[in-house]
Structure formats: structure tokens, C-alpha cells
Design goal:
single chain; 120 residues; alpha+beta; MS2 Viral Coat Protein; 2 domains; 2 helices; 18% helix; globular
Length: 120
């Protein structure tokens, strides 16, 4: 089972702890004390196995259509592993996730940033 709380996740040089908010047999949800960040782990097994990790950021910002009014907004990023029920192990999926993660780490070149800026 994933530990509760998930200690010291750093976002923009600020360390947060994520406490468990809910769990069932297909999904575990963790969040910061203020709810600004929500981390979700999910799995489903139908024709194929799917596993995902998702980070949501909830925030207030000025509403561009109604000056002097703040509105709630959110954005998210997630990774999904999709594999057949046979022939692929958790370790095999972990290798693919690790390779993808290394491509998203800031460096030269920073492929995630380049993609988010519209490069293909």
C-alpha cells in the first residue's frame, strides 16, 4: 500500500506532504492540507491493465472576464501505463515509466517543455 502521508513532494521549491483522502480497490487519492494539490493513483483491469498517476493543481486567479473577481481554476498532468494482461510485468512497465520520466526532467533538451511550447 502507498504510504500515508506521502512525505515531501516538492513543487516549485516548496515541500508538501500529501495525506490520504480516500482509497478503494481501484483508486487512492492524496492531497495537501489546503487541497491545492491532489495526487491520484488508479488502476483498472478490463481487457487490458491500466495504471495511472495524476497530479492536479487547484488555484485562484483573477477572472479575465470579470475584473476584481477571482475564480477557481485547475490543471493536471498524468502518466498512464497500458499493457496486456499477460506477457508484461510490473518491472517491465516500470522501465518504460522511468525512461519517460527521464525525458521529462529539465535538461538538454527538455522534451516536456518543448512539447508544451508546441514543438513536435
Amino acid at each position: 500500500m502507498i504510504p500515508d502521508p506521502i512525505p515531501t513532494v516538492t513543487v516549485n521549491s516548496v515541500a508538501y506532504d500529501f495525506s490520504r483522502r480516500s482509497v478503494d480497490h481501484t483508486k487512492g487519492v492524496f492531497a495537501t492540507a489546503d487541497g491545492a494539490y491532489v495526487l491520484t493513483f488508479a488502476q483498472q483491469s478490463k481487457k487490458r491493465n491500466r495504471f495511472s498517476m495524476r497530479l492536479d493543481h487547484n488555484f485562484l486567479a483573477e477572472d479575465v472576464f470579470v475584473p476584481d473577481t477571482n475564480s477557481g481554476y485547475s490543471h493536471s498532468a498524468y502518466v498512464v501505463w497500458d499493457s496486456p494482461k499477460i506477457g508484461v510485468t510490473a518491472a517491465d512497465n516500470n522501465v518504460l515509466g522511468s525512461v519517460l520520466g527521464s525525458l521529462m526532467v529539465a535538461g538538454t533538451p527538455d522534451y516536456a517543455l518543448r512539447l508544451l511550447q508546441g514543438e513536435l
